[in-house]
C-alpha cells in the first residue's frame, strides 16, 4: 500500500533480481521461505506466493524512512480502540528511523539491512491480532478501517490509506489469489471466495517453531466477516489459514441460514 501511494510499484511490476531462494545484501544472504525460489514475479504473484525476495527489494526501493512513516500512517503503532480495558499497543519503529535504531541498538549496532526484515513484517514489528483484523477491514472496503467492538454501538471508521480504485481492485484481487492459487490454496472454500494473506512471525524464544498468521475476509466480492488468526508455534501461515477459513465458512452459513426469506427478489 505504501508503495502504491508513493508510485513505487504497480501490480505488474517486477524486481531487478529474480528469486532464487535468497537475496544477497552486502555480505549476508537474506533467505526466502521457499529455498527453491519463485523466479521472476510480478507484485501480484509475489503477494500470492508470499515471496520474501521480492519484498526485500521493494522495501529497499521504498527506503527505510518512508517504509516506517507509511507503517505509522497505516496504524501499525496504534491500538485498535476495541472496547476492552488495557489493550496492548503494537510494537513498530518510530520516525525518524536513525534515532529509533540508535537508541535500540547503538549508533554502530545496526545497518540499513533492517529495511529488509521490516519489509516482510519481521524485525522490530509486533502487531496484535485485533489490530490486524482492524487493518483488514480497510483492505476489504475502500481504505477505511472500522473500530472493533464487543458491544455493538455506532460504527466508527477512519481512513488509513488512499489509493486509486484500480489499485484497490488489483490489490484485492491479489489477496484472493493468495487463497485461490497461492500460499493458502489448501484453505479454499466451496462457493465462497476468500481474500487474505498468510504470514510467519519470528519466535524470539524458539528459532524452530515460528508463529503462524492468517488475516482475511469473505466473501471477497461483498465482505461480511474479517478473521485474524495467530497460531502460536504454528509454523507456516497455511495452518492459520485453515482455521480462519473454517470460521468464515461457519459464520457465513449461519448467517445465510438465519436470514428470513424476502418476497419479490
Question: What does this entry show, briefly?
Answer:
With 265 residues, the chain is α+β, with helices and mostly antiparallel strands. Helix content is 37%, strand content 14%.
Protein architecture, described:
By secondary structure, this protein is α+β, with helices and mostly antiparallel strands. The chain has helices spanning 2-5, 43-49, 52-62, 64-73, 97-105, 114-119, 129-140, 165-180, 237-258; strands at residues 22-25, 28-31, 144-146, 157-159, 195-201, 211-218, 225-231. The strands form three sheets. It has a three-stranded antiparallel beta sheet with strand order 5-6-7, sandwiched between helices. Strands 1-2 form a two-stranded antiparallel ribbon. A hairpin with a 6-residue loop joins β6 and β7 (225-231). α2 (43-49) runs parallel beside α8. The radius of gyration is 19 Å and the shape is globular. Residues 255-265 have low confidence and may be disordered.
Radius of gyration: 19 Å
The secondary-structure element order is: HEEHHHHHHEEHEEEH
Strand order of the largest sheet: 5-6-7
What share of the residues lie within helices? Answer: 25-40%
Structural class, please?
A: alpha+beta
- Kindly state the number of beta strands: 7
Note the beta-strand portion: 5-15%
The helix tally amounts to 9
Largest sheet: 3 strands, antiparallel
Shape: globular
Gap between N and C termini, in Å?
38 Å
Mean pLDDT: 92
List unreliable stretches of 5+ residues.
255-265
Amino acid at each position: 500500500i505504501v508503495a502504491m501511494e508513493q508510485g513505487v510499484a504497480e501490480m505488474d511490476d517486477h524486481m531487478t533480481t529474480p528469486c532464487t531462494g535468497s537475496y544477497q545484501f552486502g555480505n549476508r544472504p537474506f533467505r526466502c521461505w521457499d529455498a527453491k525460489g519463485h523466479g521472476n514475479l510480478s507484485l501480484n504473484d509475489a503477494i500470492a506466493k508470499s515471496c520474501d525476495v521480492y519484498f526485500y527489494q521493494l522495501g529497499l526501493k521504498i527506503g527505510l524512512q518512508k517504509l516506517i512513516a507509511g507503517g505509522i500512517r497505516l496504524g501499525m503503532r496504534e491500538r485498535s480502540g476495541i472496547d476492552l480495558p488495557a489493550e496492548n499497543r503494537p510494537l513498530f519503529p518510530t520516525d525518524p528511523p536513525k534515532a529509533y535504531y540508535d537508541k535500540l541498538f547503538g549508533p554502530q549496532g545496526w545497518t540499513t539491512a533492517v529495511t529488509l526484515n521490516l519489509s516482510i513484517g519481521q524485525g522490530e514489528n509486533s502487531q496484535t491480532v485485533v489490530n490486524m483484523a482492524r487493518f483488514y477491514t480497510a483492505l476489504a472496503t475502500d481504505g477505511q478501517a472500522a473500530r472493533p467492538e464487543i458491544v455493538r454501538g455506532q460504527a466508527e471508521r477512519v481512513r488509513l490509506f488512499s489509493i486509486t480504485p484500480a489499485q484497490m481492485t488489483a490489490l484485492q484481487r491479489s489477496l484472493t489469489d493468495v487463497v485461490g492459487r497461492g500460499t493458502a490454496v489448501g484453505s479454499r472454500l466451496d462457493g465462497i471466495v476468500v481474500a487474505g494473506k498468510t504470514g510467519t512471525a519470528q519466535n524470539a524464544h524458539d528459532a524452530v517453531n515460528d508463529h503462524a498468521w492468517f488475516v482475511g475476509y469473505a466473501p471477497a466480492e461483498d465482505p461480511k466477516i474479517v478473521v485474524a488468526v495467530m497460531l502460536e508455534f504454528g509454523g507456516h501461515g497455511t495452518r492459520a489459514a485453515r482455521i480462519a477459513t473454517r470460521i468464515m465458512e461457519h459464520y457465513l452459513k449461519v448467517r445465510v441460514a438465519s436470514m428470513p426469506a424476502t418476497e419479490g427478489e
